[in-house]
Amino acid sequence: MEVAVWSIDPAKSALLVVDMQNDFVLEGYPMEVPNARKAIPHIQRLIAASRSLDIPIFYTQHTLTDGAVNSPLEAAYNPKLFEVGMRPGTFGVQVIDDLKPQPEDTVITKYRYNAFHNTLLEPMLKTIRGLNQIDTVIITGTLTEVCCDSTARGAYMRDYKVAFVDDATGGLSEEAEQATFKAMRMFFGRVMNTDAALAEMSA
Hints:
Elements: E1 13-18, H1 22-25, H2 34-52, E2 57-62, H3 72-77, E3 106-110, H4 121-127, E4 136-142, H5 144-157, E5 161-170, H6 174-188, E6 190-192, H7 194-201
Parallel strand pairs: 1-2, 1-4, 2-3, 4-5, 5-6
Helix pairs in contact: 2-7, 5-6
């Protein structure tokens, strides 16, 4: 049984919605992750609670350029990315309508799996509530085992507390998801479901 060494404090937390974009989530789109669709209602609940509690919400948009020159190794491992997927200005790069960002939210363009890598995420987290007031990130989105995992590790390496919401993420397989949850739980943060996260956020 998990022993919680900290709990979610809404005054010191931010919600991260990682890469819930049309190209990843919608059926038939280039990078489709069917399990990401299962996460939508859970993310919606966390977004609604965050809005009511004035928790800042950050959305990430994984983005590639034509030829995928901004991430050549990613495309080398997945060659179709040289031709399709997550291009600026396209429908596919946009966050799905079911989770549409609002004007008060922050949308972070990222070019690597880790949303902290060469983006505005860290400086925004450090200042959005006043200098260094955020110390906890709540991780949701897709892929569980890739961008969510990488971003959670990036947060941990920057001394943020990580709440990894398992049913609010979607991966390519159950096996990949469970391996990620195990590693997260052992080394990088707390793994919890949406009900548990909401209970702490509202306590």
